[in-house]
Amino acid sequence: xxxxxxxxxxxxxxxxxxxxxxxxxxxxxxxxxxxxxxxxxxxxxxxxxxxxxxxxxxxxxxxxxxxxxxxxxxxxxxxxxxxxxxxxxxxxxxxxxxxxxxxxxxx
Length: 107
Known about the structure:
This protein is mostly helical. The chain has helices spanning 13-31, 37-62, 64-76, 88-104. The longest helix has 26 residues, at 37-62.
């Protein structure tokens, strides 16, 4: 699986911030299996709020289309390997879907 942060273009600072947040979330999803329940729950809650917040702010700065395209690029990368006991695919889908919805809501 390719790391979705491997993207050669230089973009608007809001897109760069969004990309960094998405990359951290993507990598964080991969580490969930190594965490205890309470810590894991806190990380998941943070991912589900922080990424959409950054997406919303980026959409206000550069427009919905560019933000949703960046989110889709990360969503298409799939989920990094994780512990089978952690529903990583469900969490990742929720994070990127909520981020895209937040970006679209700024219209």
